[in-house]
């Protein structure tokens, strides 16, 4: 039975000449028997997925940061977007098309989706300093269904003439191909493209090393854009040949370098006189004297003795002169007859030669370019050459491109360089940070067309937003003991309740009191400025003190990660709602996620993003008139590190400081950006000298770090975001 609303939707679609939404199609029509289908457990129907019967609801979107190099951006007219959160709930938001930030801006407009999901290798992928980046531990049918649900939504939001490109590997690639056939239909399969794989020993002598991966390309209809790309030919395949074709045509003769040539009987020169002259000037045509082997090229200055020196057998044109050796006689001329030796040589002794182009149309074998690279330190970073080829093949300038497994942001960065609009989604905090870093530093990166040149342009404006799951309904079922155990493990709190001036604390972190806010007991109270003022009064601290408050995000009414009052600094550790929901769903964890890596991974994948462990920052703003300086007295990262080296805990773990000199209290604008390379110039000069680097960081950890902020008028609020090498961030603000 169709509901009133469903009937209305169908009538509207039909009267507007639009397609009936997918979830309604199957209610109306029986699924035609499928020729073949991949069968596995956990597979839900497309209708159930699109009607959110999988339990995942569309995400709410909250603008987090704004980059606007040319001044203010209107939030609703954003062009480029980074999304931090689980891609399934974000895709559902786009599919539903209601949230004001995205309404009618993405659905049906995406011309290309490129994704490079984890490949179900069963491994964890760490970044270059041992930081955790992402995991590919979801395997088997769990992996296939995880991907399939996202691909179904991807198809729904693609433009009618859009293209989907999925990177995959031997592990599960063939299953992925089958689900793509199911989702897009085998008739919409465009190509399987072979790309290079990072060489890595398989660790087994009983099988061959795997040298390549695949891209599967599908379209929504046959109206997609396609431009065949060209690639340089290897020198061995570039040949000088004749340019003759079958059958006689008039005029028969061609005048080349002052000689008149006639084609053999029954043939004609395939280039007309004008084209012949043009190619002669570009050195794609030349004349050869057969008996002596002398070669004649066109030279603007006529009979040019020094011509040989002016042609380069190196660099971009070397393919034109590749067969010239030190023995070859080479002449640059306008008229061959001007050279005394060849004044009377019979024309039959000469032949015209034509150089085939140095570029050729590529096939589906793309192993001529790298497919991985390492510029950002993020694992499995795709190469810009690969993305440039994909983007140029299937989109035009201005088209909207999306990557919802964005990692270090290669798709976004290349789309930016090639003047396309882009959306990049990832749930990892390190990915979220790395993408921003690459875009903010794009000016000094390599050009997408010419890798020998720098890009030398700033990124256009972009927004970052968080995709938040809607408030859960089963949160109150959460066992308070499980909750306390969980937060104490995640944030390293020693649980040992004690009282201080009548206030009950739950334990300590770094020797400072820690309070685990329990909203089930708070009777609607949330943490706001009056609450904190009241607390600091009751505590009456004489010496500066730090207090940690661990609080469900919904109950914190502050947008910075700390607050100072009466000599006390309160640091907040926020627990996103998704986590509380999942904690309810994971009772067997006993609130101890870190004791079992596999479970911890399941947990983070289930909640759809990594938990932020804000670094501890002690800082102040110093002023001389309106000239301001940020003084970072101490910086301590809490990121768990594979190689437990001291250098990555203090300032050595600081990756970037972002400043908004006029924070509006709602979203953060990138106004000044300072990355580790600029903050610690000795990183460059000391090279790989770890001892020197450790020494310099030890000195800085003692003295503190100063950053000039320029002139800021009194009364302004300065917003600051510190990010560590793990992608953890700490936000604070100062009103001057
Ligand atoms: C193989 S990496 C992508 C690398 C990327 N192509 C690049 O050039 O850097 C896969 C990414 O997918 C992200 N990811 C995995 N599951 C996700 C999910 N459910 N939602 C959003 N991102 C996810 C991981 O955090 C990881 O960064």
Automatic annotation (TrEMBL):
One of its GO terms (molecular function) is N-methyltransferase activity. One of its GO terms (biological process) is methylation. Its EC number is 2.1.1.72. SUPFAM superfamilies: S-adenosyl-L-methionine-dependent methyltransferases (SSF53335). It catalyses: a 2'-deoxyadenosine in DNA + S-adenosyl-L-methionine = an N(6)-methyl-2'-deoxyadenosine in DNA + S-adenosyl-L-homocysteine + H(+). It comes from the Bacteria. Pfam families: N6_N4_Mtase. Residues 110-429 form the DNA methylase N-4/N-6 domain. Keywords: Methyltransferase, S-adenosyl-L-methionine, Transferase. Gene3D superfamilies: Vaccinia Virus protein VP39 (3.40.50.150). InterPro entries: DNA_methylase_N4/N6, DNA_methylase_N6_adenine_CS, N4/N6-MTase_EcoPI_Mod-like, SAM-dependent_MTases_sf. Belongs to the N(4)/N(6)-methyltransferase family. This is site-specific DNA-methyltransferase (adenine-specific). It comes from Caldithrix abyssi DSM 13497.
């Amino acid at each position: 039975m169709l509901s009133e609303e469903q009937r209305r939707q169908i009538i509207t679609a039909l009267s507007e000449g639009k397609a009936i939404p997918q979830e309604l199609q199957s209610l109306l029509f029986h699924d035609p028997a499928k020729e073949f289908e991949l069968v596995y457990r956990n597979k839900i129907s497309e209708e159930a997925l699109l009607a959110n019967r999988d339990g995942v609801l569309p995400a709410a979107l909250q603008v987090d940061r704004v980059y606007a190099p040319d001044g203010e951006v209107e939030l609703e007219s954003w062009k480029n977007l980074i999304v931090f959160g689980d891609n399934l709930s974000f895709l559902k938001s786009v599919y539903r098309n209601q949230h004001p930030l995205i309404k009618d801006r993405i659905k049906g407009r995406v011309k290309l989706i490129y994704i490079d999901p984890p490949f179900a290798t069963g491994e964890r992928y760490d970044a270059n300093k041992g930081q955790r980046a992402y995991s590919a531990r979801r395997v088997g049918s769990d992996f296939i269904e995880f991907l399939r649900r996202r691909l179904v939504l991807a198809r729904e939001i693609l433009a009618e003439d859009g293209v989907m490109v999925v990177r995959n590997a031997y592990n599960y690639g063939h299953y992925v191909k089958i689900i793509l056939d199911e989702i897009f239909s085998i008739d919409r399969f465009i190509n399987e493209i072979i790309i290079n794989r990072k060489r890595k020993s398989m660790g087994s002598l009983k099988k061959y090393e795997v040298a390549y991966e695949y891209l599967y390309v599908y379209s929504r209809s046959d109206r997609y854009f396609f431009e065949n790309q060209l690639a340089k030919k290897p020198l061995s395949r570039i040949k000088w040949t004749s340019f003759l074709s079958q059958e006689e045509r008039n005029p028969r003769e061609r005048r080349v370098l002052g000689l008149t040539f006639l084609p053999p009987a029954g043939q004609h020169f395939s280039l007309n006189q004008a084209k012949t002259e043009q190619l002669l000037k570009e050195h794609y045509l030349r004349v050869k004297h057969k008996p002596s082997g002398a070669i004649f090229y066109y030279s603007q200055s006529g009979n040019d003795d020094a011509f040989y020196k002016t042609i380069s057998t190196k660099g971009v044109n070397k393919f034109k002169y590749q067969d010239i050796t030190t023995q070859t006689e080479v002449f640059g001329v306008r008229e061959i007859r001007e050279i005394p030796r060849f004044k009377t040589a019979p024309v039959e002794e000469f032949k015209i030669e034509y150089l085939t182009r140095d570029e050729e149309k590529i096939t589906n074998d793309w192993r001529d370019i790298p497919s991985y690279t390492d510029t950002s330190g993020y694992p499995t970073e795709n190469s810009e050459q690969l993305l440039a080829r994909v983007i140029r093949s299937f989109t035009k300038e201005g088209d909207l491109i999306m990557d919802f497994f964005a990692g270090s942001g290669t798709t976004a960065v290349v789309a930016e360089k090639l003047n396309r609009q882009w959306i990049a989604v990832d749930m990892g905090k390190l990915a979220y940070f790395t993408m921003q870093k690459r875009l903010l530093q794009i000016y000094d990166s390599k050009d997408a067309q010419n890798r020998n040149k720098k890009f030398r342009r700033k990124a256009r404006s972009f927004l970052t937003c968080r995709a938040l799951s809607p408030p859960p309904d089963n949160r109150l079922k959460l066992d308070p003991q499980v909750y306390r155990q969980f937060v104490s493990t995640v944030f390293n709190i020693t649980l040992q309740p004690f009282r201080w001036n009548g206030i009950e604390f739950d334990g300590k972190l770094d020797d400072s009191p820690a309070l685990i806010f329990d909203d089930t007991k708070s009777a609607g109270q949330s943490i706001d400025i009056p609450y904190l003022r009241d607390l600091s009064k009751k505590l009456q601290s004489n010496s500066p003190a730090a207090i940690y408050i661990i609080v469900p995000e919904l109950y914190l009414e502050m947008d910075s990660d700390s607050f100072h009052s009466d000599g006390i600094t309160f640091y907040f550790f926020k627990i996103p709602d998704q986590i509380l929901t999942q904690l309810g769903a994971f009772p067997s964890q006993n609130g101890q996620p870190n004791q079992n890596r596999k479970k911890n991974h399941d947990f983070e994948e289930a909640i759809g993003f990594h938990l932020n462990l804000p670094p501890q920052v002690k800082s102040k703003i110093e002023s001389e008139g309106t000239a301001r300086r940020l003084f970072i007295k101490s910086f301590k990262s809490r990121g768990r590190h594979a190689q437990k080296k001291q250098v990555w805990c203090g300032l050595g773990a600081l990756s970037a400081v972002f400043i908004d000199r006029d924070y509006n209290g709602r979203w953060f604008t990138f106004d000044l950006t300072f990355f580790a390379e600029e903050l610690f110039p000795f990183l460059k000069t000391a090279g790989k000298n770890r001892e020197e680097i450790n020494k310099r960081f030890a000195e800085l950890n003692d003295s503190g770090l100063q950053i000039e902020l320029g002139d800021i008028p009194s009364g302004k609020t300065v917003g600051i975001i510190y990010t560590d090498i793990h992608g953890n961030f700490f936000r604070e603000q100062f009103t001057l």
